[in-house]
Amino acid sequence: PKTNVVFLKVHKSASSTVMNILFRFGEMHNLTFAFPLNGGSQLFYPRHFMAKFVQGFSPGSAPQFNILCHHMRFLHPEVQRVVPSTAVYFSILRNPVQLMESAFAYYKGTSSFSRARSLEEFLRQPYRFYNPKLGDSHYAKNLMTFDFGFNPDGDVTPKRVHLMLKAIEASFDLLLISEYFHESMVLLKETLCWDLDSVVSFPLNIRDSSTRSSLSDSMVEKIKKWNRLDWEIYTHFNKTFWEKIDRDIGRERMRREVRALKQRQAELADICLQGRGSVSPKEIKDSSLMPLQYGSAKILGYNIKQGLDKKTEHTCRRLVTPELQYSSTLYKQQFAPKRQ
Question: With b meaning 16 or more CB within 10 Å and e meaning fewer, what string describes 227-249?
């Protein structure tokens, strides 16, 4: 199994669920994480990543961290200072249309969205609300482009798009697609030589459907146009995603692998979860498993069954622990004061 991994956690793209997978694998195999200084939850995002943002990084020494997966704005040369050269780099993308709808609910308090009564109103005259000079404007336009380290307000010329896609391809070994989450996890498992249980997960940081808004065809087109660079990234890597599956796995085997993954997920839901699925925030009984509630989104969580044996309870709890709590637990483990 490969143990050196860089995951670019793109906002609102099922990346919290992927992060949980990396946390569990790292904890189980006693790997070191590149944590933000003082155990923060982001690597000084939205600034471009710098090696000095990592707790315990020392400039003179060889890269000594196994897993880098907290929110950052990607900058390859700096990342290379933190992880070994053998690291596998991957990220996950999402259709920019759904991503924008999600971001509008989640980042409602930001400068671009707070005054718009609806996403529709924002899209009618985006420049009434959007000011690229403000520090939180990146949440409102080409968010994936921004997270990959590029200028979200750049002109969309064929040359610029080509260079951006080539740069992403040069830095990343694998780009997954959140709409095909199970297929993505199978591809990840194959790339990292991990076993099935290492990539099984329950969806984390997901919204209650009552806070989702439906989009008309004209809004869909406006979103694509407004997030044109993101659309170029998404369509390109959606295509290479399926090409990789056809080349390395084949559709028939992929179907079998997905079936096995879903079956294992259902088994674990049966073992671990009360009611077998997610619940609204007010129904979460254990406050330590409460996900961060943010913007106007209602973020769902889970309840674990009572009376499980210790080992099973630990496994189940890790599967449903929200990222902030899990990150803080791992940070404390990694930087626990050494006993004299």
Answer: bbbbbbbbebbbeebeebbeeeb
